[in-house]
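Annotated sample (chain length 137).
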Amino acid sequence: MSKSVSFLCTTAAIAMAACSFVVTSTSYAQGAEQRFDIAEQSLSKALLELSRQSGVNIVVDPNIVAGKRAPALVGGRSVDEALAKLLEGSGLVAERSSDNTVVVKEQPQRHTDALETVNVFGTTIEDPILSSRTGDT
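Output written by the structure step:
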């Protein structure tokens, strides 16, 4: 491999690592209940721990979890249920990208704002030219 191609590959790998982190673990049975013991902590650390305990790969931009907290998670549940619990109230959602990989992203904003009621008032103006064209007199 030429030096320029090697440099580009290395640069691309570093850039990708800076933009997101991927937690990799062994495979898991999707939907199967597992026992989790995750303390209340920062959301980024909780996701790392969930990945370690479950075997699921979790991909997330560190900027969207910065400053967010996750509740304690103790007991048996599926990985999807555990993720939903950790992300509850954070404005983030988890989407599966493969059997063993989940991408955490910002929840799409829903625009449910109702518009104010608008009242329209009008009056009828008698227009002799218009009336003559329609046959009304």
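Annotation: Helices lie at 3-19, 43-54, 62-65, 79-87, 128-134.
Annotation: The mean pLDDT is 78.
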